[in-house]
Structures are given as C-alpha cells and as structure tokens.
Specification:
This protein is α/β, with parallel strands linked by helices. The chain has 11 helices and 8 strands. It has helices at 2-22, 37-50, 63-73, 88-99, 113-122, 134-141, 154-163, 177-187, 204-209, 224-228, 232-246, and strands at residues 52-56, 78-82, 104-108, 127-129, 147-151, 168-170, 193-195, 215-217. The chain has a 4-stranded parallel sheet with strand order 3-2-1-8, with helices on both faces. A 4-stranded parallel sheet has the order 4-5-6-7. The radius of gyration is 18 Å and the shape is globular.
C-alpha cells in the first residue's frame, strides 16, 4: 500500500511539472518573435473549436493558391502551407493578410529553428514539424508559439509533450487508426493528439470521437488528380463534405 501511494504521488507530481511546461506560461517576452499568452491560447482554442486542418502540398507554385482558395471556399478555417511547396512562404503571407482573423494560417514541414523563424516572419500562426524535433519544440515553447510536432509512437508523443508541445501530430498513420488513438489517449490523457496520415473525409469524425483533439488532412482533401486537372470545384466539395461530416462532433475540451 505504501509503495502504491508513493508511486501515485510521484506520478501526480510529474504530471504537474509536465503540465506547467506544456502550458507555456513562463515566457521571456524579450525573446525575438515571442507571442503573448493571449495569442497562444487563442490559437489553441481555435484548434479546439474547429478541429480540422487542411494540409496543402502542391508540386507547383501556381497550383498552391488556387487549391487553398478552393479549400477555404469550401469552409475550412484552419490551413497549413508546407515548405515542400514552391514559394510556400509567399503564399502563406498572402493568405494570412487576406484572411487574418477569419482563417488561421500555419506552416508545416519545419525542420529546424531557421525554418520556424522564417515561417513566423511570414505570418504563420502555428508551426508543424513532420518528426519530433526537440530544438524546434523548445524554441516555439519559449516564445508562446503553438507547435505541433510529428510523432509515431506513444513515447514520441509524450516526449514532445514534455518538451512543450501542446498538440502532438500523429504521423505517419498507425495500424488500428482511431482505435489506436482511443487507446493511447485513454492511457496518456495529458496528450492532445492530432492524427494526420490515415484520416479521410469519411472517418475524420471517428477520430475526433475516439480521443483525437483535432485532425489534419492532405490528399483526401487536396486530391492530387483534382489538382493535376485544375478541378478546384472538387477540392471545394471535399472541404464542404469534411466540414459537414464533423459539424456535430463539438469542441474539444483543452487540457
């Protein structure tokens, strides 16, 4: 009994330490590019309310703004430009200026702190990494910038959380899909998991009702064939279908 009580106490104390780190409440406002706690919370609350993010990756610069515009026309309110897209940051800046306050704009495929700096300077309101990069997570956490790092295992998810990531991107997809998310989020309730790979227009709601904080969609939303054929109406229809499919799920309760 004494051992069980001691273990429980240590676990609770550990959770308090982790939570204080992840909440990002002690930020040096003198740091370059530092955001206010109000901006930080607004970004997280937008993720909690909307719960879906459009992730765009196009082979040409010309296709990028057309595809993203179609997606927004279809109803998407959180969008991510990726650095693998030619002229990504130019497009990000244009859309941030056009939709500031209406559509939340972020940047993905961030691989180092130089990338993060460039993305924030271009107007990114959140940062996404494809893999778990502690230096990028800590750089963002120190500045109240919401960062969503890519993780593949429960160990990587909790490590990202401990380094200061308030949301953790599950990438690539895992066997078991939404049931895997349910199992891990139940066992590690401090996590806020954002599955990206494996999520489509029809199963997004299942992920959200089985423990996912939010989801990201790439090819199911931005159909490569539709992009190649410049079928922007199809992308708008995909976005509208996704929005309709998740509308009854409700907001995520932040941790």
């Amino acid at each position: 009994m004494a051992l069980r009580l001691a273990s429980t106490t240590v676990f609770r104390q550990s959770n308090k330490i982790i939570a204080s780190r992840s909440l990002s409440t002690t930020v040096d406002s003198s740091l370059d590019r530092a955001k206010s706690i109000e901006e930080y919370n607004k970004t997280l609350q937008t993720f909690a309310n909307i719960r879906t993010c459009a992730v765009l990756r196009t082979p040409t610069s010309d296709a990028c703004p057309k595809a993203m515009q179609a997606c927004i026309d279809g109803g998407m309110k959180i969008v991510e430009f990726t650095l693998t897209t030619p002229n990504c940051l130019d497009h990000l800046t244009n859309f941030r200026q056009k939709y500031d306050g209406d559509v939340m704009v972020g940047c993905g495929t961030i691989m180092n702190t130089d990338d993060a700096e460039a993305a924030v300077d271009a107007g990114a309101e959140f940062i996404i990494t494809p893999v778990m990069l502690p230096d990028v997570i800590e750089w963002c956490a120190a500045r109240n910038i919401v960062v969503v790092p890519g993780c593949q295992t429960p160990t990587e998810l909790i490590t990202a959380y401990r380094h200061g990531a308030p949301l953790q991107k599950l990438f690539p997809g895992v066997a078991g899909g939404h049931m895997w998310v349910k199992a891990v989020s139940s066992a590690l309730p401090m996590l806020s998991i954002n599955p990206t790979s494996g999520v489509d227009l029809d199963n997004a709601a299942q992920y959200l009702t089985h423990g996912a904080a939010s989801v990201g969609l790439v090819a199911p939303l931005f159909d490569p064939v539709a992009i190649a054929n410049e079928d922007w109406d199809q992308i708008a229809k995909n976005a509208a279908k996704l929005v309709a499919n998740v509308k009854d799920v409700g907001a995520y309760v932040r941790k």
